[in-house]
């Protein structure tokens, strides 16, 4: 199995809930896959907005990157790109605050590498803790999930925010019979 086939397994698992775009470009940066999920929940809605008890909007943005190696420079660039480009555009719509009734947004990077990153990079991934709240959480919050998976080593490294993605990817890796480069 190659990295492309591994990505296909992931995409088959999430395709019911996510809109998936292949070879996605944003601000001059290419992502192998961009997957987007939007959940809108409300309670007691009838024909008018005034009868709603509550209303929430939740978003998840997954960015897939193929890379032979992941070094500190690339990792820091991705983190800066997420904070300074992706969050303002995808979460706040280039405005000051997110959409009305925004509850949360997750910005997730899944970096699929050929070679396992160094110990220094591994520790840096685990220590990424970027979270942002809007108007003291009255307008919701956003967090950054960072995951590096090396399928041929059966390795998944993730920060604390991405524990759910790590568990999901480990489950996929454990069910693969044999991984080839």
Automatic annotation (TrEMBL):
Give the Pfam families listed for this entry: DUF8052
Q: Which residues form the DUF8052 domain?
A: 4-169
Checking InterPro entries in the record gives: DUF8052
What this protein is called in its record is DUF8052 domain-containing protein
| Species assigned in the record | Lachnospira hominis
